[in-house]
Amino acid sequence: MKKLSLNLGLSALLLLTCVCVAGCSNEDMDEKDVPLTVNDLPTTAQNFLTQFFPNINATNVELEEIGTTFIYEVDLSDGTEIVFNKDGDWQQVDAADGKTIPTGFLLEGIIDYVNDNYSGIGINEINRSGEGYIVELNTADEITLTFNMMGEYTGTISNY
């Protein structure tokens, strides 16, 4: 009887382990977060924060490993979230809802287009990729604009 009970217990444990592993997505298993401080960021990222977000404290800094890619995620006390690549170059800057990001680091073409076509409306979020930039304006209907790598307007996305 003890043997049967032991076998049932081991079978239940094995089943539970399988369910737990199956319940984890590949993303969960491949993603690793390492807590850091601002001083652990690459110098480029530290300089970016000092220049464009002076006197705003970082509340959370993490190195995230997704597969073979490393990124740094920084949360600021004003609700802004910034993602840097492994070299410390910004990839995404996202202000809290209703807030705007500073524009001193953006390409002149992006700033000019927004000022010329959406006067008085700030930028809430910008994402940079190999194809260009995606810019979300600080509007109730979340107008989203796209720009190429040169900062030239390429279109508008609805419901980004």
Q: Going across the major beta sheet, what is the strand order? A: 1-2-3-4-5-6-7-8-9
Q: Helix and strand succession? A: HHEHEEEEHEEEE
Number of strand elements: 9
Spans of 5+ residues with little confidence (pLDDT < 50)? 1-29
Number of helices: 4
**Beta-strand fraction estimate:** 25-35%
- Terminal CA distance: 62 Å
Compute the average pLDDT.
85
Would you tell me the structural class of the helices and strands?
A: alpha+beta
What is the share of helical residues? 25-40%
Radius of gyration: 22 Å
- Based on CA inertia axes, which overall geometry fits? globular
Main sheet overview: 9 strands, antiparallel
A few lines on this structure:
The protein is an alpha+beta fold and 160 residues long. 29% of the residues lie in helices and 34% in strands.
What does this structure look like?
The protein has helices at 2-23, 26-30, 43-52, 108-117; strands at 31-36, 58-66, 69-76, 81-85, 90-94, 123-128, 132-137, 144-148, 153-157. It has 160 residues and is of the alpha+beta class. Strands 1-2-3-4-5-6-7-8-9 form a nine-stranded antiparallel sheet. A hairpin with a 2-residue loop joins strand 2 and strand 3 (69-76). The relative contact order is 0.10. Residues 1-29 have low confidence and may be disordered.
